[in-house]
Design brief:
Elements: E1 23-24, E2 36-37, E3 42-44, E4 60-66, E5 70-77, E6 80-87, H1 93-105, E7 112-117, H2 120-126, E8 133-138, H3 144-147, E9 172-175, E10 178-179, E11 185-187, H4 191-195, H5 197-201, E12 206-209, H6 219-228, E13 235-237, H7 238-241, H8 247-275, E14 279-283, E15 289-291, H9 292-297, H10 305-320, E16 325-331, E17 336-342, E18 347-348, E19 352-353, E20 356-357, E21 362-363, E22 366-368, E23 374-378, E24 384-390, H11 409-416, H12 437-447, H13 451-473, E25 485-489, H14 493-503, E26 508-511, H15 518-525, E27 528-535, H16 544-561, E28 570-579, E29 586-589, H17 593-605, E30 614-625, E31 630-632, E32 644-648, E33 655-661, E34 670-672, E35 675-679, E36 682-686, E37 690-694, E38 700-704
Parallel strand pairs: 4-7, 7-14, 8-9, 8-12, 12-13, 16-25, 25-26, 33-35
Antiparallel strand pairs: 2-6, 3-31, 4-5, 5-6, 10-11, 14-15, 16-17, 17-22, 18-21, 19-20, 23-24, 26-38, 27-30, 28-29, 28-30, 32-33, 34-37, 35-36, 37-38
Length: about 725
């Protein structure tokens, strides 16, 4: 595939060479849910040892993804994957997790390892329900959070506005002392002032410490942290969390960590105390799992915890089916997450949550407020709007029969027949189609149209929001969508994938097995990672080896302490480099980094200055231990039974579509739309003009009519 020149921000970031997995989605689960064996014949061990080998006697592996609407669970035991979807409990997310684990394992007393993706940090930031934070910084730099960068969110607004920083002006204190850019002490700390910090911190729930040039010399920050140790509050120290330059981003990241620390540490503490797991790992925003102790200490690393699992899962599912270049499309109950993967998982440090920069490594994911539970309404001008408000887990869409009164995207699909009411959760539960009519009639009356046209309008508006998100990560970054396969997952992804593919010019789409549980699957197969970094501006080239040695030790010691053998831990080293005088860097492999930078600069900007000096800015080390091995067996070959019939409604009247139960589809089965494929964790809608083929891996390969040329990029053994 042609690699566009607009990709510079991702140069040298393909360190996650072999990831995989999948994510749960959000069409939903019935009240209470229930566990079932996987449809796909998944095979694995009874658990996994630290090195990832399945061995007899090992604890069960349980992966849990908590979404805004549903909590999804997978258990790997005795070579089988069992699954469960239950409504989330937003008032206390741990309740759904603990209840789900007990249900899935059949009670108390079972040995298990918990792999978890959590939205606690994300929700606290989005809802501004985090801790009361105090910020200690250098005197004269208390307003770094206010000043920020010169970015203007509303470029043409006569009177611009932005949300206030997470720390109010009165909650910031400046201290004496100054470290220089080379780590030299320019002014010592004031001992009396430092000693008084504990009393100042008593008024806050959490404290952030960020001093100038602490990345070059953390001595002053450590002294303040020691003085604050007795205050009994979580203390976030910038040189421990992000020892890198750029004061605003480092301060913001440290403050975000402090803002969510009490909530996340309390939540994880409850899981440790009441869950009974032998070990807990949390999905990190970079696509790798991290130990629970680090997640509690540095919760800023979990702000994309759940979505990262989905991208890892989508990449693995696509590779097994022979596709390398994909767009991951995860539509759950509350939101949609999209990520472009040109043969690799792309990382980014230019990331913000609700306007707050977070300069840790995260997978490059774009999120919009469009999901199965997104609420449809008419605005003051009579225009149809869908989302970002969601019916959530309680009461949920109208058709769930739990007291919901607002029309949602899921309700529209049920009314149109694309989500057959008697096939919800693969036929295990029934939805209430009749209950939808009053809410739909209210919207249709306001639009002056029929019920079917209103339902189609709701779906179309949701599609438009998701189409914009897909274009942001592809066309707007220099990629041609035609070079990619759209991989749909989440409970609602299969209902929209074909129409979205048509909108952005894709002719091929893939729906993995168990699409509504793919994020949880991604957590099962994600590696365990530890990253370490340090800004080295001004250091000589000869001193870089010593810094890399320290970073390697920092990155690997935690993994070795967990029992991973040294030969199982892979280490990747990179350098953020730039020409002297430039303001921004490109990341390149450490081996031959200067020449690699010239080449990367030429790919991005179209030229290189090989006679100009190149300086190393930040050194990075990623240590990675392998995940559990899961051997996936696809559906058996044979004869697929005749489909049942589904009634599909629209403005042109009703039509009859094929209705397939996914567990009954055999490898090689092929059929044209209109058709519906129903299964436990999601439903796939194949409209007229599209065809579907069941691959040997069990994935559904959707093609637009007339496109018989598109084939997977790798092993022919995986083709239909």
């Amino acid at each position: 595939m042609r690699k566009p020149t607009a990709l510079a921000q991702h140069e040298g970031k393909s360190r996650y060479e072999r990831r995989g997995g999948a994510k749960p989605g959000g069409e939903g689960a019935p009240p209470g849910g229930r566990g079932e064996p996987a449809d796909d014949g998944s095979r694995g061990g009874k658990g996994a040892s630290p090195g990832g080998r399945a061995e007899a006697g090992e604890p069960v592996l349980v992966a849990v993804d908590t979404g805004g609407t549903f909590t999804d669970l997978l258990a790997l035991e005795d070579g089988r994957l069992r699954r469960l979807k239950i409504p989330s409990t937003p008032d206390d997310p741990s309740r759904a997790v603990l209840d789900g684990i007990r249900t899935l394992l059949g009670g108390e007393g079972r040995r298990f390892v918990l792999l978890h993706g959590t939205t606690v940090a994300t929700n606290a930031l989005l809802e501004r329900k985090g801790a009361h934070v105090g910020l200690a910084t250098n005197r004269g730099f208390e307003d770094v959070l206010e000043i920020g960068r010169q970015n203007r969110p509303q470029l043409y607004a006569l009177v611009g506005s932005r949300k206030p920083p997470l720390v109010a002006p009165g909650d910031r204190t400046g201290v004496s002392g100054r470290i220089g850019p080379q780590g030299e002490e320019l002014e010592p700390l004031d001992a009396q002032e430092t000693a008084s910090l504990a009393a100042w911190a008593a008024q806050f729930d959490s404290v952030a410490v960020c001093l100038l040039h602490a990345y070059a010399n953390p001595a002053h920050e450590e002294a303040l942290a020691e003085a604050l140790a007795g205050c009994g509050k979580p203390v976030s120290v910038s040189s421990r969390i992000l020892p890198e330059f750029r004061e605003y981003e480092r301060t913001s990241t440290t403050v975000v960590n402090a803002y969510v620390a009490p909530l996340v540490s309390g939540y994880l503490g409850k899981l440790e105390e009441k869950g009974g797991a032998e070990r807990i790992r949390i999905m990190g925003s970079n696509g790798g799992a991290i130990p629970v102790a680090r997640a509690a200490r540095e919760p800023v690393r979990t702000v994309l915890s759940g979505p990262a699992g989905g991208v890892v899962g989508a990449m693995e599912a696509a590779r097994r089916s022979g596709f390398d270049d994909i767009v991951a499309f995860d539509m759950g109950g509350t939101s949609t997450d999209v990520s472009l993967c040109p043969g690799e998982l792309l990382a980014s440090r230019e990331f913000a949550v609700d306007g707050q920069p977070v300069a840790i490594p995260v997978l490059d994911i774009h999120t919009v407020g469009a999901g199965g539970g997104s609420i449809a309404r008419l605005d003051a001008g009579g225009a149809l709007k869908v989302g970002p408000e969601s019916a959530g887990a309680a009461p949920g869409p109208v058709c769930y029969g739990r007291g919901g009164t607002d029309l949602t995207v899921t309700d529209a699909h049920v009314w149109l027949g694309r989500l057959p009411a008697d096939q919800f959760l693969g036929g295990a539960s029934r939805l209430d189609r009749e209950a939808i009519e009053p809410a739909l009639a209210s919207v249709a009356e306001g639009m002056g149209t029929s019920l079917e046209a209103a339902a189609e309008g709701v779906v179309a508006v949701a599609n438009s929001a998701m189409e914009r998100a897909l274009r942001v990560i592809s066309v707007e970054r220099g990629y041609d969508p035609k070079d990619f396969c759209l991989v749909a997952f989440g409970g609602a992804g299969g209902l929209h994938v074909a129409e979205l593919a048509s909108r952005i010019g894709l002719s091929t789409a893939l729906v993995p097995t168990g699409p509504g549980l793919l994020s949880a699957y991604g957590m099962l197969v994600a590696p365990v990672t530890r990253e370490a970094s340090r800004t080295v501006l001004g250091k000589s080239a000869g001193s870089l080896d010593a810094v890399f040695a320290e970073l390697r030790d920092t990155a690997t010691k935690d993994l070795l302490a967990e029992g991973y053998p040294e030969d199982a831990v892979r280490v990747a080293e990179t350098v953020d480099a730039r020409y002297a005088g430039q303001s921004f860097e490109l990341r390149v492999p450490a081996d031959g980094w200067a020449e690699a930078f010239h080449s990367a600069h030429e790919r991005r900007y179209g030229y290189a200055r090989r006679d100009s000096p190149v300086e190393a800015v930040t050194l990075r080390v990623l240590a990675e231990a392998p995940p559990a091995e899961i051997r996936m067996a696809g559906p058996p070959a044979g004869t697929t039974p005749p489909p049942a019939a589904a009634t599909i409604r629209g403005t042109e009247g009703s039509t009859t579509a094929k209705l397939h139960a996914r567990r009954s589809l055999c490898a090689g089965a092929a059929f044209d739309g209109p058709a519906v494929v129903a299964e436990y964790s999601g439903t796939t809608w194949i409209p007229t003009g599209w065809s579907c083929t069941v691959m040997k891996t069990g994935s559904l390969l959707l093609r637009h009519a007339g496109d018989g040329k598109r084939r997977p990029a790798t092993s022919p053994a995986t083709t239909p």
